[in-house]
Model the fold of this input.
Amino acid sequence: MFQAKVFTLYPEVFPGPLSKGLYGKALSNKLWELKIINIRDAATDKHKTVDDSPYGGGTGMLLKADILANSIDQNIKNGERIFYLSPKGKKFDQKLAQELSREKSVSLICGHFEGVDERVLTTRNIEEISIGDYVLSGGETAALVVLDSILRLLPGVLGNEKSSMDETFENGLLEYPQYTKPQIWEEKSVPGVLLSGDHGKIKDWRLSQSEAITRVRRPDLWQKYKKD
Ligand code: SAH
Done:
């Protein structure tokens, strides 16, 4: 079973959207498990302090290395992969989601304030991942994004194994346009080829649509696709 551990100062945020629909069903069917760890539980003083001001000056507060390390050491076994959600991290993408969906356990640390004391990242062998080039106020929303993208890849979670196969990014392209009933809506018909019943033709049309959309919207992906 895939186990997710989330280290946070706001445990009440979880499971949030991950308890809905197919994910909620998968959670109760034990296809995955979520362990929420309140970092504050590792604080040792009577005020349960978790943060302090940065050496060298500057605004804001940092999560203390000793407290976060205590929390990690109490909850993680050697060899488990630990990620700190951070705008400075390696960009999270579908490839990493695929890779992490094959792990037994993934731990995510949600930062707050101005971030965390750098030393805890190196001593605990923590990998930094970013969900995009913008700054959030805390790692919780980022952790939900990362987990959402992993969970849909776990065997049995979506129900239809194939449905995540030809999606955007899976083959290096954006997904082709899709249509459902009614066939004519506001005087617009769905593309005729989709009504033809000719699966070969439909596949070719979808690929050409995917290629056209990717070329226009994402030149970066298009260059990579052409090279591979
Ligand atoms: N001072 C830091 C930003 C701190 S933002 C800097 O300039 O790099 C506060 C917290 O939000 C971070 O500790 C991190 O856990 C989370 N966060 C912010 N932006 C993020 C992003 N793009 N991806 C993942 N986590 C992010």
About this structure: The radius of gyration is 22 Å.
